[in-house]
Specification:
This protein has about 425 residues and is α/β, with parallel strands linked by helices. It has 16 helices and 16 strands. The strands form 4 sheets. The chain has a 7-stranded mixed beta sheet, with helices on both faces. A 5-stranded parallel beta sheet has the order 2-3-4-1-5, sandwiched between helices. It has a two-stranded parallel sheet with strand order 6-16. Strand 11 and strand 12 form a beta hairpin. Helix 13 packs antiparallel against helix 15.
Length: about 425
Amino acid sequence: MKQNKTEYRPRIVDKELKNYLKVFGGVLLTGPKMCGKTWTGLHNANSAIGIDEDDNIQRAQLTPEIVLEGKYPRLIDEWQEVPQLWDRARRVVDRTHQRGLFIFTGSAVPADKTRHTGTGRFVHLEMRPMSLFESGDSSGAVSLEVLFRGKAIKPFPSSLDFKKAIWLICRGGWPASLWAAKNAALMIPGGYLKMIIESDISRVDGIGRDPAKVELLLRSLARNSSTMAGTTVLLTDIQEHKDNAKISIDTIDSYLNALARIFIIDEQPAWMPSLRSKTRIRTTPKRHFVDPSLAAAALDAGPDLLIQDLKTAGFLFESLCYRDLCIYAESINGKVYHYRDETNLEVDAIVQLGSGQWAAVEVKLGSFEFDNAAANLLKLKKKMQAQVQEPSFLLILTASGGTAYTRDDGVHVVPLDCLGP
């Protein structure tokens, strides 16, 4: 495996990966196919082998110790094809007491539960498709990290508008799309879904699954992106299909588990502000595709069709914002939640850091929604006064472009193409 490192497009996880290699014997780098794991692994490795290339599967099964030999850090790409390599690498780390020996990359979680977890030897780092900052579609002029420091934002112009936002949703954050012609880039998510339906969802655990039902489930998940729709909603949605597909709750759960293991769906958990809170919080997670382009592809919705459906476009833009917020937040030890309570006060995203700092974010397509969004954020801030520390900031993420600025009420308004880590 070779890579021209001068052609590598830097990823936000690079810094975290380098730091982990200084502390742990190895790093397990996971994420969906085609998100750039192999390129990132190669960029940070001094030798590499692709287990799914040539006859390397047989070689790894016969002589795993030889497969692991090489200049460190050594990249073991698609290691899940021979899960025994995990324990072999752990023993090498135990025997040598060295750091930064291995980078294991994989696009699926192996079914084998007997392996040692690797705790203390390996650390898990998850990659996602590219954020707009990584793909070069965001200036990063407004830094999430700087916002948490309480810094004021400077007005900064945006080149984003609704039409461009829809294009970015449909193209997705797949590195391959950056070198593809415009029309070809739009074909990548659809081709990805076809692989999932026809093989990937069954290969992950060796259980055969009905492609027609997988396709219906993916379509239902896409229709319910950025919502708290539960399994029963998905079941009803599928059963109401014109072909009257017969499927059970258990089957849907099995399919969802398989999709999670190949990193296709992502759950946005509910935010619990305080264990002693008297406010009853709805704990159902929101579901997103790992990239909104997959949801658009599952709906057979290209840019022209989405522009005509503002409701669906709004949900998918929220998924786009969630993807980027997760990438930026994870780089500063943060996570992204959502909030909804018994009064139906709902906020699209809560970003919380390991320090306990938090911020509230509303996602809106256009400026006509800003006043209501700001009122919602300020209402949550007031409601939380007696429970947790004040939010570090309140933010509206938008597709309407214009300029990043701060409103008179203190709420920041930032086009997504201005946000960065």
